[in-house]
Structure formats: structure tokens, C-alpha cells
Give the backbone structure.
Amino acid sequence: MRARPIVLLVLALLLAGCTSTGPEKDGRITLRFQSLAWQEESVQANKELVKEWNARHPNVKVQYVQGSWDSVHDQLLTSFEGGQAPDIIHDASDDLADFAYGGYLADLHPLLPARLKSDIPQRSWDTTTFGDGVYGVPFLQEPRVLVADATWLKRAGVRIPTVQHPWSWPEFRRITERLSGNGTYGVAWPLKEPVSATLNLSLSTGGELFHRGADGKVTVRFEADDEVVPRTIHDQANTDRSASPTTLGSGGSDTLPGFFGGKYAMVPLGFSYRQQIAQQAPKGFDWQVLPAPAGTDGLAQGVSPQTLSIAQDSRHKKEAAEFIDFLLRPSNMVRLALGDWMLPTGTRALADPALHTAQDGWATGTALAARLRSAPSQSVRGYPEWKDKVATPAFQEYYSGAIGLDELRHRLEKDGNLVLARYQR
Amino acid sequence: MRTRTTTRIGQYAALLAYLVFLALPFLWLLSTAFKSPRELGSLHPTWIPRHPTLDNFRQAFDEQPLLHAALNSLLAAAGAAVVAVVVATPPAYVMARRRSALTRAATGWVIVSQAFPLVLVIIPLFLVLKNLRLVDSLAGLTLVYVVWALPFALWMLAGYVRAVPTEVEEAAAVDGAGRARTLVSVVAPLLAPGIVATGLFAFVTAWNEFFFALVLLKTSEKQTLPVVLTHFIGAEGVADLGPLAAAAFLATLPSLVVFAIVQRRITGGMLTGAVKS
């Protein structure tokens, strides 16, 4: 008998949970903004901006919905299929292609104000342009940089690279060899996700890998320019022993204890990892941010910026675009960039003095912004499958020394083109 | 004598090793939850935090609505457990006591239903719930959890019913009890441990469930604890480890507490009727 009140309470609470506010009430519009912000400062910045918008726009209320990078693709896919997608969607440009081609996202070109269009450079818009439409506003991006133990480099007497005078790939290899020995390594490559890291860095040596023919179809060709970066990493790990073999399968965070503990002189990481480094570095540990090595195309690098999109099913696209415009005003973009420890794409935001300080390597990253380009994989249909089934195991085996360059080429091209062909019939 | 002692020591050593093996991840989680970011970045991590801190818990609560999410999880899990047990008990009794082609088919279906992968059902399920206006509601999620738990609950409860000797029911009938009275006053009390165990299974399954909750709940206010935990994970799997460990530790507590409270009852129930007296 005592169980009855508990059962009734559970049922009553469930029914209470069932009720939901409608999208519109008294002519007021409610927009759902799904944000993937996850770091403390970033979540705070996003929530503050939503609050500011709501205070200024009583008739267009924005509801903050917390999403997760970990599961965003599956979650969005089911939301789109079920017609329940958020109005404003935070994602990354490399996740948009299938949604854009699938008709789930609105073409933003007619919706966005001229201010925003002109503030963000074309090379960034290229990352969210699929066919004739623009399906996301790229707003935050991060280059891959070398985070270095400054004391170690100073002690070794190596030349410190700058954005104006970066290391070349051969020079980088020589220096890591010089820094290695006695169980320590010049570099620790965290290559849990080897494909995007390799492809994006290969733009510096002119590597394109994906080649679009006159018929619009994409094929994989692993040519001499594509070989430089993977061969350097392979030789560091397997020939020179200047790259730690144990971190090749690790994520960036996993390399940090070894970096702080003096096992590795440098770690190539995304720019936003600085937040973790600033938080976790032992007291007195002197670290600095260096540009990644340069090739025939200088410091060019591929990136997949974070984006804001509008769902095709949204009934309030105009208002959603106005909210995006508000969120990405230069001063607001700076707040978002600082919160995520990333670079804004907007030229006016990028000029903000807060992003040009030497502290925590901000100035180095900002100086690299002009070299960032659309990642090679960006608009390739079938890329996720090619990456998971063909390229990831092939690169992992190559870096571990299990296969050679010819076998790597064979797999990327032969097996890879079979996969891509299925998406381009 | 010496051989028996050696065997006993070996058995205890094996048991201890097994317990340590099971407890290690939880102990590491506990240790991580109390470490500062600097200690988390140490090359030589220690089991006992050198400078224990509650900052991770503070940050976890500041950043994410953990209590609200826990309440949502509790509602969905408790609701699913209660409804699954109530719905599963009568058919489980029939499955255990009546031998027919239908009960055999039902048992077969229960086993087959366990083989369906989640991804296969999620989109049709989403569309069905959408038509019923149950997307983005805890009631809809609870319904899904009930349906998901039902086959195993049926199978589990049927096993418990089989363990109740039919002679007990016959004795009740001889004493003049009707079918309903026999079920309520005689069978149900003997089934109590089984019902508790089944309810617990449904509760823990729903409490830990992630994918349905991720897909079916849209507004932040309705998200359950496993979904909120992923908010501590960023792009490329980078995690805010300290707050994540703190929140994950708190999320495991209810299951542990429930098990600790009812464990004796379940064990007692499982042994009931195991031997003839």
C-alpha cells in the first residue's frame, strides 16, 4: 500500500514533464539555438549573449539548447528527419556537406546582412559553400600549431621559428632529431585522428589529394606534394626516433602529461588546446606557441571552422539570421573567440587587441589567420566513409611503420576511389 | 588440511583480484574527480589526490544543470521501472505456467527482440513518437524505456515465477482461495524479490541510457543525466576531465545506493526455494 503514493507521484511528475511551451505564444516567436559550447568560459559567453538578445528583443525569444560535439551528427540527422531540428544550429563546416546537399539547411545567402558577408573573408565562406548555396556562417577556427617547451628549445640553441620565418619541413625534422635522445623526443604527434591532421597540414606543401575533374567528380591522387608531411612524420617516428611512437594513437590531451614532464620538446596541437595547457601546466613551466612548419605554399593550412546554420524547416529564418548577425557582431565574436580560445573569422574581430597579445600565444595564432583555407575534404561527398574505412587505418599503419609509402598510396587511391565513386554516381 | 587452506587462500586471492578489477575504473573516477587541473596533467599520476579539491564539483554544477538532469533521469527511470514491472508481471506468469505454442512464440520473440540494434529502430521510433506528440517529453522517453525493458523484464520475471512451486498455489486453492486471491496473496509476495530485481534492472538500464534520450529530447530542461555528461566533451573528443569525472561520479551514486539497499533482498529472493527442505 505504501507504494501507491510513490507511483502516483511518479505519474504526476511525468505528466508535468510532458507539457511543453509551444513555439509561439501571443504572437511572440521562440527560436531554439543549439550550441555546442563546452568550455566554462565559452558556455558562459554564449549564455550571456542569448540573455542580452532576449533582453533587447522581447518578441523574439531565443532558447539556449545545449548540444554536444560528441554526438552532434547523429542527433541532428534524426532531428532533421523528424522535423524537430533547432532553428539555429552550431556545428563545424566539415559536418555540413551531407546536411546541405540533403536539403536540411537553409541557404543563408539571401538572409544574411551585407555587414556580416563582407566582414568574413571569402576563403572562410568557401568552407560552408556547397554548390550554389551558403549553408553556414563560419565564425571560429583554429590552426594547428606547435606548442613547445621554451626552456628546452632555448637550452638546445635551436632557431625559434616565427610566422615570418617558419621552419621548413626538412628543418623541422633536423631540429626534432637534435632535440631527441636519452628517452626524450623532439616531438610527440598525437594522431588519433590522423587524416584531418595530415591533410590539413599538407596544404602547406601544395598537397590537395582530392582532385575535382571537369565533370565535377572528385578522385583521390596521392602525389609528390601530398607525400611530404606524412613522410616527415613517418621518418621522425621510425627512422630518426625523434617522434614518440607511443603517442601516434593518442589524442592531444594524452600527450600533455609527457610534455609537462619533459618527455617531449614539442607537441603539434589545435590552437584551442592552449586553454588546457594554461590550466594544467606546472608552475614555472615556460611554454610557447610556434607556427607549424612551412612548405612550398608557405604556412597554408586547412581548417574546418565552427559554423552557425539555420534549419530549412525553421519557420522564422529571418529572425534566426538576425540572431546570428547579433551573435557575430565583432565585439561578440571576440567574446566567443576568447571563450573558446580560438580565432574569429571576422576581420574586425580579428583586429581586436585582446587577440594580439603575446600571452598564451594569441599573437602567433592571429598572424596565421590569413593562411587558413578550406580543408581539402570540405565538399567531398563520401569523405566520412573514405576517412573511417580507408584513410584512417592506412595512415595509422603507415605511421606505425607497418606499411610503406607505396602501399599507403595504393590504399588511398584504389580503395578510396571505389568508396568515393559510390557517392558520385 | 594444508591443501585445503592453500586452496582457500587461492580462492580469496582470486576473488580479491576480481573485485579490484571491477572497482578500479570507479576508484580512478573518484580519484580524478578530486584532482586539480594541474594534477590531472601530471606525468606520474597518483591514486590519492595530492591536493584534493572540490573545484571540479563546483564547476560541474556551475556549468551544467546536473540536479535538474538527475531529476529528469530519476523520473524517466523510476517511471519505466514501475510501468515495466506492472505490465510484465501478468504475461510473465502466463508464460511460466501455461505451456502452449503462443507462450513459446512469445519467448522466442523476447529473445529475438534483444537482437535489434538501436540505430535500426531510432528513426521509425522517432516518427511514431512525433505523431503521438511525444517527442521532447519525458513521458515519451519513459514509454520508450518501458518498451525497451519489457522483453527482458518478461523473460526475467517468468524465471522467478517458475521458481515458485505450483504446490503453493494448489495448497491455496485447497484452502478455498480463488485464482485472483492466490495470485495477489500467495504468488505476489513470493515474487517480490523477483519484482524488485526486475524493477532494478529496468531502472538502471533507463538511468544509464544515452542514445534515445539524446535523440528524443530537444530542450535543455528535459535532458537526462547521461546526455548532460557529454556536454563536458568538446570537439575531437577533448574532455574537461575533472568536471566530467565529478559529474560522472555523482551520476553513478543513485545506482550504487539502490543496489546497496535492495541487494540483500534480491539475494535472499534468488535463493528462495533453491533447495528442498
User: Anything to note?
Assistant: Chain A touches chain B through 55 residues (CB under 8 Å). Confidence is low (pLDDT under 50) at residues 1-23 of chain A.
